[in-house]
Amino acid sequence: MTSFTPKDLVWDDEGRRKLTEGITKLSKAVKSTLGPSGNTVLIESEQHTHGITVTKDGVTVAKAIDLLDPVENLAVRMMKEAAEKTANLAGDGTTTAIVLTEALVYYATEAIREEAEAGDAVSAVAVTRCLEWLCEEMLEVIDEMSIPVTDEMLFDVATISANNDRELGKIIADTYTEVGKDGVVTLKKSDTPETTTEVIKGIRLDRGYASPLFVNDQRRDQCIMDDVRVLISDAEISNILNLEKILGGVSQRKERLLIIAPCSTGFINTMAANVMKNGLKVCTIEPPSFGYRTHELMGDIALTVGGTYFSQKTGDDLSIIEESDLGFAKHVIVSKDNTVIMRPDDVDVSAIDRRITDLWAQRDMLTNTHERDFVIERIASLSGGIGVISVGGHTDLEQKEKLDRVDDAVCAVRSALLEGIVAGGGVCLHNVAMGIDTDDGRPTEEVIASNVLARALGTPIRQILLNSGKTDARIENIVNGLATGEGMDVKTGEYGDMVSMGIIDPAKVAKTALRSAVSVANTILSTNAIVTMARSYEAK
């Protein structure tokens, strides 16, 4: 018998109206948090500490919202995707992405409706195409505006992203200054109320977890383990019997185990099932890189953790592995795409130093650019430090809220180091808007798209000023009187060059927020029919 699932359908203006209402509801909850004078949001959820959380993080607020009306909720889900993508790529700018999306949808819908009422048929799809290529042009403008970040600017970027917490900003900036542009900074919960930082040695791999079921930190989508035994092999593990002795000992002593080896699907599923059902503390990842590079990198990993590398190339057999062959890591963070392994304090540093010396000599003899680069990457990995920020708090609620802010700030600093910084406080996007040609004389769809994007890009700076207590009339006087690069420090009321005042944003944050907003807005604007699962209740 064929299953039958009834559907509800909504078309045309009614569907777009409901989508817009969903966006408006989500945005109203999120945009009040924008800027240094933004408000916090109180969220009730079983997933949060003690069933409650207080946050100014846009993506956290967005994730907490689900609406009763299915069409409105579709819009919310798309907005969540935009916010999450912005957070994942840039670490900050989630609220800006939501504010931009709402403005784009509202102004575009109004413009298209006004043209229709005037008797002019305007293609919404054509408008979205114009918005798309205009967006690409504006991204290039932001690139041109960006300037390289200095050590002094790191403090400003970190402080702003940490909700203007100067203490946290200094800790983050100092950590990045010590580990360098290419360094790794990770977070963990502190056992004390204080937030501290340290730089320890370790290694980063370009491989993530083999199954999402290994994740034990859902918020960060990571598997995080302390005091971890490490198995290193390039021989495939196809059956749990291959490691019966090792797994039995680890399970009995309730130890944590990281397996770096090619594993069959069956073995991974078995490990994941034991993690979920029996509380086994294990995670598997594939060996890094490919070919001979894998062999070299696996040897580096073994040195880092003080373990034995079992390699098929040297005839090793996993059946003879002993617990004494396992390495040890002080801390391991496994995400979707990469793994950070912090080496223990008692590792044989002299062996690592000898390997680094040999690699320098090897590099000097190589003529192939790619091979030299690979050797340099290995040297940096073996000698580089990993910054660890231990985030404290007087209560679980305070610690979680602070951890979210530090996480955003760390990602923002990383983005700033990669792509530079621009004027903050919404000024960069406002300046971009000022350069958009909104004159008539072009096809109607182009004119509409230009005006819509220009108006939308001016929304973040206005929202920041609104959250600081300024009236609408006062806001317009302020914005209209600003020169390029100038803005207002809403904390002090002073005007001036935003970069000079330390009010800056990573260029990547501005770009990612704009790109995500245009993508979601275009999807909504080009929608003409909406199909949802039929509900047994009526939306209130």
Defining traits:
540 residues, alpha/beta, GROEL, domain 1, GroEL, nine-stranded mixed beta sheet, two-stranded antiparallel ribbon, 18 helices, 17 strands, globular
Describe this structure in words.
The protein is α/β, with parallel strands linked by helices and 540 residues long. Among the domains are: 7-146 and 421-462 and 509-533, GROEL, domain 1 (Orthogonal Bundle); 202-364, 3-Layer(bba) Sandwich (GroEL), CATH 3.50.7. The protein is 50% helix and 16% strand. The chain is built from 18 helices and 17 strands. It has helices at 12-31, 58-63, 70-90, 94-117, 124-145, 151-161, 166-179, 244-252, 265-278, 291-305, 349-365, 369-383, 396-419, 427-434, 444-457, 459-467, 472-480, 507-525; strands spanning 7-11, 41-44, 52-55, 184-189, 196-205, 223-233, 256-260, 282-285, 309-310, 327-334, 339-342, 385-391, 421-423, 486-489, 494-497, 504-506, 529-533. The strands form 5 sheets. Strands 4, 5, 6, 7, 8, 9, 10, 11 and 12 form a 9-stranded mixed beta sheet that branches. Helix 6 crosses helix 13 (396-419) and helix 14 packs antiparallel against helix 15 (444-457). It is globular. The two termini are 35 Å apart.
Topology diagram in text:
Blueprint: E1 7-11, H1 12-31, E2 41-44, E3 52-55, H2 58-63, H3 70-90, H4 94-117, H5 124-145, H6 151-161, H7 166-179, E4 184-189, E5 196-205, E6 223-233, H8 244-252, E7 256-260, H9 265-278, E8 282-285, H10 291-305, E9 309-310, E10 327-334, E11 339-342, H11 349-365, H12 369-383, E12 385-391, H13 396-419, E13 421-423, H14 427-434, H15 444-457, H16 459-467, H17 472-480, E14 486-489, E15 494-497, E16 504-506, H18 507-525, E17 529-533
Parallel strand pairs: 4-12, 6-7, 6-9, 7-8
Antiparallel strand pairs: 1-17, 2-3, 5-11, 5-12, 6-10, 10-11, 13-16, 14-15
Helix pairs in contact: 1-3, 1-4, 3-4, 3-13, 3-18, 4-15, 4-18, 5-15, 5-18, 6-7, 6-13, 7-13, 11-12, 14-15, 16-17
